[in-house]
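Course assignment 3, question 2. Fill in each field.
Student: A.L.
Task: Predict the tertiary structure for the chain below.
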Amino acid sequence: MQVLMVASECAPFAKTGGLADVVGALPAALASLGVEAQVLMPAYPSLFPLLPQGEEVARFDDLPGGTGRLMRVTSDGVPLLLLDAPQLFDRPGGLYVDENGRDWPDNDLRFGALSQAAARVCTGVIDGYQPDILHAHDWQAALAPVYLKMDGRSEPRSVFTIHNIAFQGRFGPQALGPLGLKRDWFHPEALEYHGDLSFLKGGLMFADRITTVSPTYAREILTPEFGMGLDGVLRARNAVLSGLLNGIDLNSWNPATDDKIARPYDARNLKRKAENRAAICDRMALEPNARGPLFCVISRLTQQKGLDALLSAVPHLVARGAQLAVLGAGEPDLEAGFRQAAQDHTGSVGAFIGYDEPLSHLLQAGSDAILIPSRFEPCGLTQLYGLRYGTLPVVARTGGLADTVIDANVAALAVKAATGFVFDNVSAEGLAQVINRVVDAHADPRLWQNMQRAAMRHPVGWDDSAKGYADLYAALVA
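Answer field:
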């Protein structure tokens, strides 16, 4: 079976978050099940070195925003189709924003071109290649199923995956013309959303199947609290909605072979984590002889992630004898707040504002627990990395966090099944309560080690979810 995946990012080539990790890892997991997946993505400057190695397989003269060509190349084991359109993608700054953090004003054209190129691939513009399934990811690829239906095509069948419904790709109605969309589809039962064009709504309305990245999130987005204004659309299409958990790349994230950490280890020699903790203390100016647990945060620093509540709980965490190492960037007030916390609690709190991939591995390897107090979380990957590394996740009960962590309650501890700590109240008070639970559990070495080993046994790879996708594709083709 041939699957064309369409996404705006794919690890390790271009990444802003978990979407890239999923799109980068899923094709390899599907290959073992007889599904051949190619990833269509923009040729950003970081991918320019790959272009001379590739083969031009299609050329377009009239995409939104101008011309483009498709280059086929395989790199890091991922089969890629790169949309080379320099006028759209050859620019400084981020994938979606300029150097000042503002959205590119032509993001509608940039990702409309990506979606339209995908739809044209599905019509057979590449000699010898005809996908059986179009699989579009998030708002940036959401118009691909729309363009297919606009051409009157029922094949290939399409799947649209929501990675985070908070990001919807909304543009004014004036975008319809340049995007080549049907104006008579600009109404509430199709593309219109409160007077705007919504890319995401287009994917929800016109894809044959809708998935999201955890079973709990699939239920949550049917409600006004989590549906971000699209809960009614999703309730209307609930029959074709399902939740499949994300997995992680078990080769890239393996504490026994990780070359980014100070000392590799596995579940049989957990004492080696201490050498990684020492390396964290050295890197982040933390007291090396502290006895309490070391918490880490590896996250975008936003209120959605609950980090305003954590900032308020820092004095309590320090008072309980624990330490905190923060890696991330985001809202300026939170960045400033964690910098100030590191100054106010020298030796107990360290903050690295920015992103550093090797440091993220070291934090997973050397910390005792990872804090993820998100107010909503479609799936989350850092808790899966934590499980893999025996760094116990401390998570809010929402989305994929609730689906992947077994709380250290009495029943779970009795059968040695607990893998972390789950709490409900995302506030300074709620965090203080769960921090108390973690500190008390950490004081019992045997209990803590049992939890670490249970966490490291927990399946976090792609096997189950890849089979879920393969079965979904097969059902659609049938």
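Instructor remarks: The radius of gyration is 23 Å. Residues 2-247+463-477 form a domain with the Rossmann fold fold (CATH 3.40.50.2000).
Grade: pending
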